[in-house]
Amino acid sequence: MSETEGELSLSEQFFQAAESIVMVSGLSRPSIPTVQSFLCLAFFEIGRGNVSKGWAFSVEGRTARFCEVE
């Protein structure tokens, strides 16, 4: 496995872990870090060519921000 393949594999593992955490806890507690997390997930998906899923993450992030109560 080349260094690039290893990095891609590792980034995929981090993405899956972040996605699990954000989907479980992020939707129940909207905050600025939650919105940032959704946007990072969105950019990762868009970068992989999954524009629809990336768009869905960005919408979830904006929805979480609008629902935030301070």
List keywords for this structure.
single chain; 70 residues; mainly alpha; 3 helices; 81% helix; globular; XnlR_reg_dom; Xylanolytic transcriptional activator regulatory domain-containing protein
What does this structure look like?
- This protein has helices spanning 3-26, 32-47, 51-67.
- It is globular and about 40 Å long.
- The chain has 70 residues and is mainly alpha-helical.
- Helix 1 runs antiparallel to helix 2 (32-47) and helix 2 (32-47) runs antiparallel to helix 3 (51-67).
- The chain is built from three helices and no strands.
- It has one domain (3-67).
- Residues 11-58 form the Xylanolytic transcriptional activator regulatory domain.
- InterPro entries: XnlR_reg_dom.
- Keywords: Nucleus.
- This is Xylanolytic transcriptional activator regulatory domain-containing protein.
Task: Chart the SSEs and their pairings.
Blueprint: H1 3-26, H2 32-47, H3 51-67
Strand residue content? under 5%
Terminal Cα span: 48 Å
Give the integer mean of the pLDDT values. Answer: 80
| Elements, N to C (H/E) | HHH
Instruction: Please count the helical segments.
Output: 3
For the secondary structure, the number of strands is: 0
Helical residues, percent = over 70%
Low-pLDDT residue intervals, each spanning 5 or more residues: none
Sheet having the most strands: none
Radius of gyration: 13 Å
What is the number of domains?
1
